[in-house]
Specification:
5-stranded antiparallel sheet; 6-stranded mixed sheet; about 20% strand; 6 helices; alpha+beta; Glutamine Phosphoribosylpyrophosphate, subunit 1, domain 1; globular
Length: about 280
């Protein structure tokens, strides 16, 4: 009778961690950083449908790197958790800390009990009424939670981007300065070569706007994003009202609301099953 092959628990956990870490490092970077008016999310992502950055609830957002199908399932579960908690108790009871704890339990259980860990790394952020009350939580594939102060970078070469943020990030940066810094660091060549010029078509950008009364999440695109990333343009922030056009107002593009247009934003979060909610 042959004996089963024995692997020590320490080696098994190390192999799982190495497997997940190696595959996550292949993904494109995501940078989350605070600015004077809220929290900004910047990702190198040319897809207009498969999002790395998404709304979870009124003032809570989600960003991820790794396998899309795995972090999309986590995102949908987060939206359902937030909806149920907000409906059962109060909307103010939906917090980034509570969502991070729920994600940590799921990630930790999969890492220890399943044969393959989830190849994801995620950030859950909540914008507060003041910069001191902003919350940014980073969760790794094994369920570890870190309370980040000011900024976080995930994905391939995240250490180099983090070093750049530590040197140059300031808590009172304008939105345009924060976005320009993030895009510059995303375009750096880790081998020391010339930097890449990332255009708006290659970027996925969103914010949690502190001055919006309820739903703080908005995506940035089009001429507005171009102006924010242009060094000699005077635009430093986004309008706090939505674009003067019909339809779903989760994207700000031109930044020029029509006079007297104060249409309220929709009350519900992004459709958890829709392709634009990724």
């Amino acid at each position: 009778m042959t004996l089963p092959f024995y692997v020590s628990p320490e080696q098994l956990m190390k192999d799982r961690a190495d497997y997940a870490r190696k595959n996550i490092a292949r993904g494109r970077l995501v940078v989350v950083l605070a600015y004077e008016g809220g929290i900004a999310f910047v990702a190198e992502n040319p897809s207009r449908a498969l999002h790395k950055i998404s709304e979870i609830y009124d003032r809570v957002a989600f960003a991820a790197v790794g396998k899309y199908n795995e972090f999309e399932n986590l995102r949908v579960a987060g939206v359902r958790y937030a909806d149920l908690r907000g409906y059962s108790y109060d909307r103010s009871d939906v917090t980034a800390r509570g969502l991070a704890n729920a994600y940590a339990q799921t990630l930790g259980a999969v890492f220890t009990q399943e044969s393959k860990p989830l190849e994801v790394e995620i950030v859950v952020a909540e914008v507060g009424p003041t910069p001191d009350t902003d919350q940014i939580y980073r969760l790794t594939f094994d369920g570890s939670v870190a309370d980040e102060q000011g900024f976080v970078a995930m994905g391939g070469q995240a250490e180099q981007v983090t070093a750049g943020l530590q040197e140059r990030w300031q808590p009172e940066m304008t939105l345009s300065a924060a976005l320009s810094l993030a895009v510059e660091l995303l375009g750096r060549d880790p081998g020391g070569g010339p930097p890449r010029q990332l255009g708006t078509a290659q970027l996925e950008v969103a914010i949690l706007d502190r001055l919006r009364p309820r739903r703080a999440f908005r995506r940035l695109a089009g001429p507005l994003l171009e102006r924010l990333l242009t060094p000699d343009d005077p635009t430093t922030d986004v309008p706090h009202t939505d674009d003067p056009r019909p339809g779903h107002h989760d994207v700000l593009t031109n930044g020029t609301p029509a006079p007297g247009d104060q249409s309220p934003a929709p009350d519900g979060p992004e459709d958890p099953e829709g392709p634009a909610a990724g």
